[in-house]
């Protein structure tokens, strides 16, 4: 996973949507309103080296991007810039172009370079409140693309954890959760969250834990868990229910969605595995 490029563009805070082979981020510097960065998760430095699966998915993502930006801001054109000099990982700058001014949150934004080529050196200078509102709005718009028709009990569910040494118990919870919903979002605790809560770093680094979950066939989307604010996740991702182990009954933070409790797989836990491997900190 191209972590250097991701972090340059403020990942995970700037994440709009994580696909199987790509991450779509809100560009921290906005040359035009709604500018994004699409970064391939594969560790490749040539566009011809991406997998067929990534190439096929990219066309679907481009369709999502154009549908969202057209409906939200009615862009005139979109420029896709592949710039792989300073940042060699395969990625694209997505720059919507506007012949006329566009309004967002009672403020008017102008594409000052129109009709010439975009200049990434020019920024709209969005205040933090506008940047955060833009990110929240686009996340919601991408969520709305998903079908609302469902034959399962829930449309969207969420579960989270450290996933530090992935084991059968984790797999069982993911499988059971996916059986109840159309779309499963999994939150993976960052290294910082684990250090703050447990007083030690994880055995498996965050980037590797993310990759493991992204490769799981029961998981539709993986997001970083940067704190313990579950209600914020419920609101931001329109979660219908959260699944968690049964030992959390009566202890889980209050949320406005439904809760689903699963019994843990007997004799399987990260702590037990670490003790067997003699890597549990003393």
From TrEMBL:
The keyword Methyltransferase does not apply. It comes from the Bacteria. The keyword Cytoplasm does not apply. This is Glycerol-3-phosphate cytidylyltransferase. The lineage of its organism: Bacteria, Pseudomonadati, Pseudomonadota, Gammaproteobacteria, Alteromonadales. InterPro entries: Archaeal_FAD_synthase (IPR050385), Cyt_trans-like (IPR004821), HIT-like_sf (IPR036265), Rossmann-like_a/b/a_fold (IPR014729). Residues 159-248 form the Cytidyltransferase-like domain. GO terms for molecular function: nucleotidyltransferase activity. Keywords: Nucleotidyltransferase, Transferase.
